[in-house]
Structures are given as C-alpha cells and as structure tokens.
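haha ok so turns out i had the wrong file open the whole time. this is the CORRECT one, sorry everyone. sequence first:
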Amino acid sequence: MAVFNLGSLAVCGASIAVLLPLISKLSAPFPPRRSKRLGDPTYDLEKIDAPAATGAKLRIVAWALADSPVAPLLRRFLINQNGADELQDLALQVVDEGKSTVAYTPMHRLTTEEWKRHEAAALGAGSVKTFLQEGFDAQPPAPGVYVTVEDYAKAYKSGAWTPTSAMERLLQAIRKLPDEYRVFVTVREEDVRKQAQESERRILKGEARSIFEGVPIAVKDMVSVRGHPFSEGTVWPAGDRHNKWAEEDDNTVRLFREAGAIILGTTVMTEFGVTPLGYSVHFKGPVNAYNGSYYCGGSSSGSAVAVAMGLVPVAVGMDGGGSIRIPAAMEGAVGLAPTYGRVPDSSPDTLFGTMVKTGPIAATTRDAALAHAVMSQSVSSHIFTRLYGEPFGVPPVHLEGFMDLNLKGVRLGVFWDHFNDAEPLVVEACKAALESLKALGAEVVPVALPHLKALSLAHGLDISVEFSTFFGNLLYNGHSLEPGTRIQLGLGYTISGVEFNSANILRGWALKYMHEELFTKLNVQAIVSPSMGILPPKMPEDVTSAGESNTPLIMQMMKYIFLGNLLGLPGISVPVGYDDSTKLPVSMHLMGAHWEEAVLLRLSNALETRHLQRKKPSAFFDLRAELWRSCGVDFCEVPLVDDHLDLDAVLTALGARGVLQLMVEGGAVLQGQLLQRNLVQELRVYFGATMLGSTAQAWAQTPLTSTIKEARFWTLRGLRQVGTGPGWRMEETLSLNGRMRTMQAMQDSSCQGNDVCLEYERVENSSA
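then structure:
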C-alpha cells in the first residue's frame, strides 16, 4: 500500500505552479511585441553587454548551452532576450501593409532596361575579355608593396621571371612560415611544380590562356580543389570522406585553372565559418600579418593572411556574414563579396543556403577586378542561372568605367548615425577617404537604414538555421567540435519556424525598401560606411586552447557587413588608413545595388589610386626581392625619418657593402641633397609640364636649381624635348669654370614638346 506525504506533495504542487509560467516562457518564443512602426528611420543598433569567455570558462559555457539538461531552455532564453518578439511584430506589420513579399532567397530580377544596360557594358568598353588578356593599360602602375597579377604577367612576358622559378621561391617561403602564420591546410608541392611547368610551356609557345597564366592563387578550405582534402576548418575522424582527396574542382577553381592560374593550395578557415575572429583552434593559426598579437579576421582567415603576406595576389573566399570583407579589412587587403547568384560556385553552402557568396580577397583593387571577371563567368547549367530564369537571368559580368577617376554624377549614401557609431580613429580614417571621393566629384547623400537591429537578428536567425541544417548532426555524434561551434549549432536548432519566417518576411520588405527608396528614388550608387566598428581586436592569451566567445565584440565587427548577406547585395572592403600605434589597417565598406560590382570596383580603385599609400605588413614575403637574390642581387634595409629615407643612413649602408656607384631616381629635394654632398657625377633633369599642368613649378624656382648654381664644373650636355604641342625653350648662361649663373625655362611656340629632359655631365676643370 502506497503512503503519501501530503505536506510534501502540497509544497511540490505549489512549486510547480510557480515554475510552470517561467518554464513556459523559457521553452517557447515570446509573443510579438510592438516597439516601433514599420519604416521608422531611427538608428537602433545598440551595444550588447555580455561576458566574453575563453579557455576552461568557454568549455563550461558550451556544455551548459549545448549539452546540459537545461541547454534548450537556456538557448531559448538567449533568443527571447535578443528581440525576436520585436522582429515578429515588424513582420506582422509587413503583412498588414501588403506591399512586399517574403524573401527566402535575396534575389533581384532585372528589368528589360537594366539587363540591356549591363549587356551593352559587357559588349563595350567594360568587356572583360580585353582586361583578362592585357590588363587595364599598356603601362601598369609602378611596382607597389605587392606583386600583382599584372606584375606577374609583365615579368613572364619579358622573360625576367618564369613560372617555375617564381613558384620554387614561393614554395620555399611557405615551408619557412612561422607556426603562428599557419596559412595553408594543404600545399602539394609536386602538383604546384607541374602546374608551373605547364604554364611555362604555354608562355614560351605564346599560348598564355589569360593574364592569370602562371599566377598563384589560394583557395579557402570550403571550396573543393581536385587533389586536396575538403575539411571546412574542422578535423574529421579517420576514414571520413572529407579526408579523401577531392576528385573534382569547384566551378570557381575550374574557371581559374582554365584561365591558366596555378592553384597553390587550400587555406585555413575558422571551423565551418562560425566566427569572424579568424583564429582556428584546430590549426593553431593564423594571426594578423601586421601585428601578430591581434586577430586576423575570418572566416576566410588563411586566404586573407596569404594575400596580406604577399604569398598570392588573389585568394578565393566565401562570405556568409562578412567572411571575405572582415578578414580583408583586418589584413589591409581588398575583399569583394558579390551579388547573391553572381559567382557560380558549386559549394553545398551556396547551393543549399541563401547567405553565402563566393568572391576574391586580393592585394589590390585591380587584382580583385580581374579575379571577379574570371569567377563570375556564367555557367548555363548552374542553379543560379536556372533560378533567375529567362529571358533576363544573371547579367553578364563587366568592368565598365573601372579606370575612370572622374566621379562626377556618382551619388554615395551615408547613414550618418550608423557611420559614426565606431571607434574615433576608424570614423576619422573613413571620413578622410570619403573626402577623397568627394574631391574626385562624388556627391554624398544622407540616407536612412531602418530596423538595423531587427535585420541583424534576422540575418543571425537565418544563417544559424542554415548552418545547423548542414552540420547539426555533428553536435550529437561525438565530433570533436570547438566550443563556439557547439554553441552556434545549438542555437540554430532552437530557432522556431515562426521566427525563421518572420525574418524572411522582414528581409523581403528590406529588399524592396533598398531598391525603391535608396537605389531608385535617391539614385544612390553605393552605401558607404566603415568596414568594422573597431580596429582588429587583440587575441586573449588563452585563445589557443578553445577559442573565444565574445558576442559584443563580434557585433562590433559585423555591424556594417551583415546587410549585404541578408539582402544579397554586393559589398567591397578597401583599406583607407592605418593605426600608428598598432600598425593595423583601417578599411571602408561600399555596398551597392544587385549586379553593380563594377561601380564598387571603380570606387575602390579611385580610393586606392588617389587616397592611400599602402604599407607593408611586418610579416611579408617579398617575391621581387627573392627573385633578384636568386640572380645575385643584395638587399639592405635602411631607417625612415618621417616616412622618408634617411639619406645619410642609405649612403652609410651602401658604403659598408662596398657600393661605389649608384643610380638614383628622385625629386628635386633628393637630387639637391646628393649634389650638396658632392656625390653626383651625372644629372638628368626632367621637367613635367604636361603631366603636372598648372601645378608645375617654374624651373628657376625648384630647389634643385639653386643647388646646381652652387655646384662647380657643370656643362650643358644636351637638350631633349618630349611630346607634341606648345613647347619649352631652355636658356642658360655659364660662367668660367662651369659655374652656372642664370637658367630660365620659357614657353615658345616654335619649340615642340611640352616636357623637357636636360642632361648635365660633370667635367674636370684644372683652372678651378
């Protein structure tokens, strides 16, 4: 016979009565809550106050949220606390308004007029065929920090380099990389050598496939590369299919191979791309190329660091929430995440998701543009081509206006409350870049981006559901996952169908708003903002064991980026400055309308050309120097004073190496300093009146002139005029002993050539 303690039963019943409402609230989404009207332009992104966790603390948090008996309740509580009820209410308002539709894919089908405009550009001056054969002009820019795609092509064409010699030096550099710069997952050296030999044979026969012939590229370990494993940033159990060599290339890789590029290897990424911080616990790296104490950005971390270090001019990345643009920003590279549907890659994350886009991370904007031209070639059988359908599907890729620096008529939208919500140094650098665009003729237009808080949550809900759909089974089959990955998989499992549908209803409304209100009514060509709200963050000391979970930090990194993924809009990150104390880069983000990558690339090229002088990171591989060393050329480093060469230090260093003869190209100040030290034997002066126009100094006013007047034993050797049109006549009077007394440059219609080159030769004079 059973005996019950009625007193205890009463207490238990009362406890259940109290806990049931709480459990009910924790186990289901909150009902919709009205907080603002649909379309309210008030800036509403807020800083999140939440603790960060690393090491043992993070492992405990991951167990509590992913594996403990109360994990589902805790995850539900977190989602409820982040405004899912406000998102549901906005979705209901969209339904009541009845002017937009739900958007499960962020597509924008072109009108007849729009499609014809892109077609005309692709057939005209913006045709990528010429660019992919010859580059952007007959004379590429002077060598900069990085060896670009065009530099490779020029060096191969001239015979100065060969693909085999260049790749051998590159492979040596990769073998010597420090452990913390773990950039590559796999590099198959013999395969790289074989590719280089094949490229070299084609070049010698005059059969180069494109400007990419013999150019090394790297590929994120989220993209299938024939002959390489496909790990997606994790460590798979022995015998798993992911550890086997891939038998086929992804469409993107195939397009690069067909262009003649050398596939160097696959690059490290964060586990399944769940965090933008960039450090992989499994692969123990990489760190920032500019400062090894800081994060490199992710999830395309290895791709970005490989570019920043000078190992490759182009790397393939994938971007579901900034995974191209954030690491590019943190590594001082150019990162383009194109329109949803632009690049026909065959990754499962793209084919079965709606957020991820494949694009290039590149050393320069010119490299990014050339890579974009290769990657974006339409494939008729691809799902994107079929999805958009006939008659006006995916428009042809083009680079219309890429080299045009006259930005008159270009309208740039700025949501100032959003723009200014970043660290002061970041805001200052991006405002300076914006002023440079204005100086080139661009117009700045104030705009509003409503409901960024709800749209940020919508992005988080959608991508979490997609991520957990692909990889959620790993949470329960004993797979060795990083703690942060376990948390993200658990959250994706917890999101309700109501919340997922509400996110996509608001997504549809935002797509319509952006195209109608901003890109059409205001005729804005790009939305401008910082790439991140902060400088690249410093890595905690114990990050190597378990990674880091830091929601407030990640929100600061993604606040300007996520909208491009949610709405399928193209975005580009371009460096615009550096922090003097940490040496870390600062970048600007430009987001355009669907299919307008050419506009973004044009603006990025303008910034790169007229605004910023790029700086070399502390961890850098100088291929030019390595190839010169292989020919017996020596190099030495000399100190800078106020970012300029210290001439005395240069001469001292050269003297210590026994260098007795030197050819120097420089301006009037440098040449004058050499003259004052009585070190010049021959001087050639070029006066660029045509190039400089009204800014050209009169010859008699340059610092070099007065220096020459004080120097002895100079005799006019010859006068050479360059160019056509109204020219210049040079008059000079020489005294005894070759001392120059007067010298004038005079415009003379009888003299052909706007520019002149004067050559003076030093002569000995016994009567001095």
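The radius of gyration is 30 Å.
again sry for the mixup
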